[in-house]
Amino acid sequence: MSKNHGSRDSRNFGFGRKLHYAIKNCLRTHFADGHYATVQAHSERCRLFCDWLLSSHQIADARLINQEVFYAYAAHVRGLLENGDISVSTATNRISSVNVVMKILRGDTKVHISKIGKVLGEKRSHIRSVAPQGMIFEHLDPLIDDLIKTDFPRVAAIILLARATGMRLREAILADLPRLAREASKFGQINIQDGCKGGRSGAFAPRWVPATDIVLSAIEFARSISTPGSRNLLSPTESYVEFLRGTVNASRITLKAHGIPRIHDLRAAYACDRHQELAGVPAPVCVSDDESPVLSKSSNREARQKISRELGHERLDVTNAYLGKHSS
């Protein structure tokens, strides 16, 4: 770890006097003050864990959390799941976050639940069962208009880029717009590089996406509202985290009002769109089981592999999650 937090034998392993503060502190240290969204997600889930520890076991020091206590918490989460209070995904995430935090705090995996699905009695399914929002591009027009009217034009640009190219939120914000415009003009396709997670052969693996008319329009609009002196959607004096915490978070009420709970859904809509174009048939999630056409294994796999590359990874299971079913 990059920072010294004193004796590992001290309260909360030296990360702070209060348990939840110590958890957030250890996450920030581990991620070197980056990965804001990841830190925030783990921190919020573990806040519930801290509340449970205090009310059920009067524990306010991470050194007192052992495997037995963790299993008791997992049983509590399973009870919420069985009562229908939370979803499988939520239950899995809560236990997973405690796994992450305990490993960082302790420096080992002695307090850890490896088979979360078994403990919960139910496994999380990543496979979509409902078509993503934003499938019909024109249906986004009212949302775009509202975002522009309410002084969120840069979020409108993010929406257009995400839906047109399959970019992640970070990628849309940090995209080098002049470069994309040049590539679209010269090659008829764009290479998505900025802000990537680097899940394939590093963040610089080629990731070419066709520069359709919709893509060209999205880039042109983004450039038109980009701050002078900037190559992306951030102003020259603004950090990514500042933009995320301020502008993007403030726009989420408008997004939800138009049926877009997560910008990530537009990435799934792009994947489904490309499946129709490449395979010639709708993605499985867009039709009922009895209407789903049968593709040859080779055609099915070829289309999904190309979509995976355009989304920025080689894992077919992630692409299958977007499209609705595993490839045959």
From TrEMBL:
Residues 290-310 are annotated as: Disordered. Gene3D superfamilies: Intergrase catalytic core. Residues 299-310 have a biased composition (Basic and acidic residues). One of its GO terms (biological process) is DNA integration. One of its GO terms (molecular function) is DNA binding. InterPro entries: DNA_brk_join_enz (IPR011010), Integrase-like_cat_sf (IPR013762). The keyword Transferase does not apply. Keywords: DNA recombination. This is Integrase. It comes from Pseudomonas peli.
